[in-house]
Amino acid sequence: MNPGIFFGLFAAFLFAFSLISLKKSFEEFPPSVAFLCDAVFGLVIWVPVSLILGVNPINFLSILPWALASAILSEAYYFYVLSKGEISLTGTILASYPIYTAILSRFINNEILNGPQIRAILITIIGTLIVTLDKNINLKDLKKKDYIFWALSGAIAVGLSDSLSKNAIDRISLQDFLFILAFVQVPVAVVYLKLEKEKLSHLRDLTKDIGKYKFALVGSLFNILGVLFLWISFSEIYASIASPLTATYPVLMVILAYIFLKEKVNKKDYFGIILVLIGIITLSRVS
Q: What is the pTM (predicted TM-score) of this model?
């Protein structure tokens, strides 16, 4: 198995735990507070990792625009979109972002997939969308154009960001991109707080009352680790292959809920999980 596939699946596993905690944190705080936690953990984790791998200061300025685009499009904006509309509809459309990653990477990164790879990717994406789709979704929500707009714009934004980030990682280096991204997230997080009219005192309170922010902190920790392995996956394989793998976290959430919470798995989810497994196994053989 290509190591990029393993790293992509491990990233999805971390994202599954992240989303479970972040959903709880959204009940207590707006998404900007969770993203602030992201920025803090980014400095604590990504900076040391990138320094160990060896950064080159000469590349910092050239990689800055790509890191800024990633911090805004695939991080801050993604958090913002999750808070818009019904999660049953928004989450399903957001889960389609690998489609846009594959399309845009064809032009931005000149990624050319063979027939078996395309079929495996489509099977994986379809399976993920089936699992993500809420069986109790209200069809009237489909008529609410605002929901569709925010979710679709979020999916396209993540697809564009992932394609651009892959380009930067291939042209320059993973560690330089990671190092700059860690610092760029901080001002983006501050601006995000201001837009949601939240106070910077949250940053001070994080160290004083950890229990109050526990779900935001745990969710952000897993998210930062997940993004780390996402970028490592991108450095090993095509973004159009890695992206569908990292997006399978809803499937893993269903499996984890079945194992640890004894929640029942319905027929729709069984079908989606089987498709994802077929897609992953096929990808591992043809990549």
A: 0.88
